[in-house]
Specification:
375 residues, alpha/beta, FAD/NAD(P)-binding domain, D-Amino Acid Oxidase, Chain A, domain 2, 2 domains, 8-stranded mixed sheet, 6-stranded mixed sheet, binds glycine
Length: 375
């Protein structure tokens, strides 16, 4: 079988890897720019089903299931490629400094504890016993021992190396202009210079929605970029061991002790650029968590575009109405976290036409008039 994957972020790379592992002979990735240089590169690498969602339903279960795949994935990638993706399972803290924050923490705790989620409630003092550089203004917090992080740029490097070692064909700077559709079957894709035919076609183009043939059928479906601005601080005379969130931002300590902080949530079209206002907001939120960062050297800033679907959930599954075509996008704030499970689901669908993982809530069909409101 010959599979074409359009898009070159961690979702596309994870799907490609899983397909190759399961014996697909020819897998080709078409990326419009450089592999993994959009949202996958801009991300913070947090594996935070608990801290980054306060839900407990199907989406939460999907995130938590993907989170559980990382220890094996990290081992496999290290063995296969020699790249350490720096999986860190120390846990995540969610902290609050205001009355509203305290109310949010109490609400999260009660919902999550009731749902059987592994979460502990901490006083401000207990937070500072875990993280001595957290502000004295922090009044309470939650500890999520099952959340963690990976170094997302190393994840991209490892997946790329795995692709190269496994003869996945990578075509960068290959901008696909349209899909080839013959009698309701998607048979390939056309770039400016080349035509690619395939037995199966997967669209995993992040925030770029042009190739998704909705035919006006799913009026409620829309996909747009939500910009996140981020900053990095040089390693200094401080250290942190957990990813630390507040309702206004987060800090992520890396293995080499430099710290990154994020992130804005902005509608700025396809402008993956930083602004002075955005950087100020992110820095303020980081310093509110850890005032020691006020004097740290900020040595990096960047922005990325999260793919956001109108109901906040990813779109994963077959293209309804077309044969041999699949979609995997809309991972929004959880692209890194959801990459391994998305790879497995797509490989299941391509190879067997079904998957045991429950993706009912993520199928594009949820936007059809007949099923709207059922999920
Ligand atoms: N997952 C982090 C962010 O979207 O900012």
């Amino acid at each position: 079988m010959n599979v074409l994957i359009i898009g070159g972020g961690v979702i596309a790379l994870s799907v490609a890897r899983e397909l190759k592992k399961r014996g697909i002979k020819r897998v080709t990735i078409l990326e419009k720019g450089a592999l993994g240089r959009e949202a996958s590169f801009a991300a913070a690498g947090m594996l935070a089903p608990n801290a980054e969602s306060n839900g407990t339903g199907r989406f939460y279960e999907f995130c938590a299931a993907s989170n559980r795949l990382f220890p094996a994935l990290a081992d496999e990638l290290l063995e296969e490629t020699g790249v350490n993706i720096e999986l860190d399972l120390t846990g995540t803290l969610f902290v609050g400094a205001t009355d509203e924050d305290e109310a949010e923490i109490d609400e999260r705790y009660s919902v999550q504890k009731n749902a059987g989620i592994n979460v502990a409630r901490l006083t401000g003092r207990e937070v500072r016993e875990l993280e001595k550089n957290v502000s004295g203004d922090i009044r309470k917090g939650l500890l999520y021992p099952d959340d963690g992080q990976v170094e997302n740029r190393k994840l991209v490097a490892a997946l790329r190396s795995s692709a190269e070692l496994n003869n996945i064909i990578i075509r960068e700077n290959k901008c696909v202009e349209r899909l080839i559709i013959e009698d309701g079957v998607i048979t390939g894709a056309v770039s400016r210079e080349e035509v690619f035919y395939a037995d199966r076609v997967i669209v995993a183009t992040g925030a770029w929605a042009e190739l998704i043939p909705t035919d006006g059928k799913w009026a409620a479906f829309s996909l747009r970029p939500v910009r996140g601005q981020m900053i990095g601080f040089e390693a200094g005379d401080f250290s942190f061991s957990h990813v630390i969130y507040s309702p206004r931002g987060y800090i992520v300590p890396r293995a080499d002790r430099h710290v990154i902080a994020g992130a804005t949530m902005e509608d700025a079209g396809f402008k993956a650029e930083v602004t002075p206002e955005g950087i100020d907001l992110v820095k303020k939120a980081a310093c509110e968590i850890a005032p020691v960062l006020r004097t740290a050297i900020m040595n990096e800033s960047w922005a990325g575009l999260r793919p956001f679907v109108s109901d906040g959930l990813p779109v994963i599954g077959e293209f309804p109405g077309y044969k041999n075509a699949f979609i995997a996008t809309g991972h929004f704030r959880n692209g890194i976290l959801l990459s391994p499970i998305t790879g497995k689901v797509l490989a299941d669908l391509v190879l067997t036409g079904k998957t045991e993982i429950d993706i009912t809530a993520f199928r594009l069909e949820r936007f059809s008039a007949a099923t709207a409101g059922q999920n």
